[in-house]
Fold this sequence. Notes:
- This protein is 33% helix and 17% strand.
- It is α/β, with parallel strands linked by helices.
- It has three domains: 73-348, 2-Layer Sandwich (Aconitase, domain 3); 352-537, Aconitase, domain 3 (2-Layer Sandwich), CATH 3.30.499.10; 588-785, Aconitase, domain 4, CATH 3.20.19.
- A seven-stranded mixed beta barrel has the order 21-25-26-27-30-29-28.
- Helix 24 crosses helix 25 (698-706).
- The longest helix has 17 residues, at 16-32.
- It starts with a helix and ends with a helix.
- The structure holds iron/sulfur cluster (SF4).
- Iron/sulfur cluster binds at residues 109, 154-156, 174, 176, 388-389, 452, 455-456, 477-478.
- Iron/sulfur cluster is lined by residues 109, 154-156, 174, 176, 388-389, 452, 455-456, 477-478.
Amino acid sequence: ASSARRHLSTAQSLPPTYEKLFNKYTEVRRVLGKQRLTLAEKILYSHLHNVEESLLSNTDNGRSIRGKANLRLNPDRVNMQDASAQMALLQFMSCNLARPAIPASIHCDHLIVGYKGAEGDLEAGIQTNKEVFDFLESAARKYGMDFWPPGAGIIHQTVLENYALPGLMMLGTDSHSPNAGGLTTITIGVGGADAVEALVGAPWELKAPKILGVELTGKLNDWVSPKDVILRLAGELTVRGGTGSIIEYFGPGVDTLSLTGKSTICNMVRSLLLLSSYLAEVGATTSIFPYTESSARYLEATSRSQAVRNIETLQKFPGSGADKDAYFRFSADEGAEYDKVIRIDLSTLEPYINGPFTPDLAIPLSKFKETVKDQQWPEKLSAGLIGSCTNSSYEDMTRVESLLKQAAAAGLKPSADFYITPGSEQIRATLERDGTLETFEGAGGIVLSNACGPCIGQWKRKDGVEKGTANAILTSYNRNFRGRNDGNPDTMNFLASPEIVTAMAFAGSTTFNPMTDAIKTPDGKDFKFSAPHGLEGPSTPFESGNESLRVLSQEADASAQVAISPTSERLAFLDPFPPFPGSDLSGLRVLVKITGKCTTDTISAAGPWLKYKGHLPNISTNTLNTAINAETGEVNAAYDLDGSKHTIPDLGQLWKDRGQEWLVVAEHNYGEGSAREHAALQPRYLGARIVLVKSFARIHETNLKKQGVVPLTFENEADFDKIAAGDQVSTVGLYEMLQNGGKGTVQVKVTKDSGEEVLIPTKHAVTKDQAGFILAGSALNLLSKGL
Ligand code: SF4
């Protein structure tokens, strides 16, 4: 490191981020020698908290680290969207720190409903969610975080335009955070608790990912767009079982793509990896592209020319010695090995339409018509929606504009409703300046506010399609799970590129193929679209747009008050959980014994409950409310010690009020599904100390430990039958195990009403760090103490 610093001292003004990156990278090279590294590994390992500890102790010369070692990483920043930021900030506040250890930003995008158009929708959204936005803004002021007000843009677009930078590592509290991988930034989508760990300055843990290489050759043809690369890959990965991991693109085809095209491809990685069971094992994943000339052009267009110069300096600069490995290059080393390689020839790719209800059902456009007919899907297209964080780039929008102009010249208007969601105020204002928005509006398109809207179910449809009515829509978004867009489980939602969505909206038909078919014009002629064309970026830098929609960026202000009304139903301050008692647990009772699947959705349901994400007491009233009682077969039923029947959350609350701590008993894969932190927070809040099951989903098991709940599994599954609801439970060996940093065995002593005692042996996977979390009451209690 010192030799690197010496070299750096002669370099002209590398910013601290790159100086740090360079120093760490030099250390990585020193430890790994001549091992060839992929781009993702270079960036990831250059963010290790302790390079030697992570790489040397886990590796045979580094080779075996993937999929095995636990990396302790120091991310450069955290980005949060408004829905998930609430609990993240509440947890951060409970640590009593003056400011976060790393820069952070908050983006108000998920809570605005798309209906009639930007202005009115934004106003209505602000009205409905005022207390949440006020809270987020006041917390941003107090802790010196960047605050992007409602209407400023969608998190991933705003991050790409402002914060993403080649070589950085970021965490985002949203699953499409990998979008920034287009600009060579490792960005991982995480839950609020993980984000807070990074905010308090603790190293963030990640299992060293496997690296899946995607080699791109050739060049995209007319009508084919970067979106089709990921739509096709979605189908392919599913066929091959979707390995999950970091997906890294390489090959000559990469140089032919625009920066925003690369981001579109990265954006959707989570959508497809969510389909893979591997994700549940790995816990985090992302996607990355090398730095190319189009990356430099994008940085220039977004007023970041200095970054381009810094990158040039960094890449020219030798580390220790003149070995070419010592240079930091934003691409993989020649000869770097991937765990698996998929090859895509861009020249042979055709447009895809994926869906309905799953992003991996990839259907080539040429086969879509016959598939619609075979499957008897609706032939009428009800709506076409373009934009969102995935596809609202200047290139996307100007390609669409070229189609709209052709259609207008032929006297055509879209036959289906046509909506446009700009990803940010910057892109919206630039499109307005350059006349593109006028073209959209001229075609009868409805420009929605710069927010998520219909992509996340915040869509009030104007066409009167009722819940339960089968209909087809086409979007350029990134997910299409059932009910995702309008809450109607019978809306068949297909994904395609913005240009395909647009052309098909003109036909109003799902069987139309714009590459081959014609539409009748009002005067009876056949009109055929020519291939779309657009501009990669504006000819002059992007506009910054409406002043009131710009970022509020400020130093931390300790005197600022965080706005939470004591009568709020949506927000409540969090009290830190109390530490573990100085002895084994005793006097616990089994609240309920659960049978069958128990996912994080069973433990903390989503849907209408999302509204209470920032109010732990209120959202806790849904705890386990779809769980099946193993003893009675009833859903959401639990029995108090006097035999009275309650809902599970009601009994939990009753026991909490009574000071009666409890445990739940369940079967296999407890906590599978999304990594929802509320599924650990809620039981803890209501008084759970232990969860005793046949097996856990790994991420949820970790989340429980982070919130101070002890996850135990039956050593003998048959012992599940020896414990019943209402039984009294104490632990034997738990306190000692925790004090010994996770070493030792734990038994559960069950006392029946009859006085009979049963000793049940259990297993645990508590590590030294996690033992510390549990003893402190939660990971945050411990981590914030260490600062
Ligand atoms: Fe998520 Fe859709 Fe919003 Fe993008 S636009 S951040 S995918 S909800």
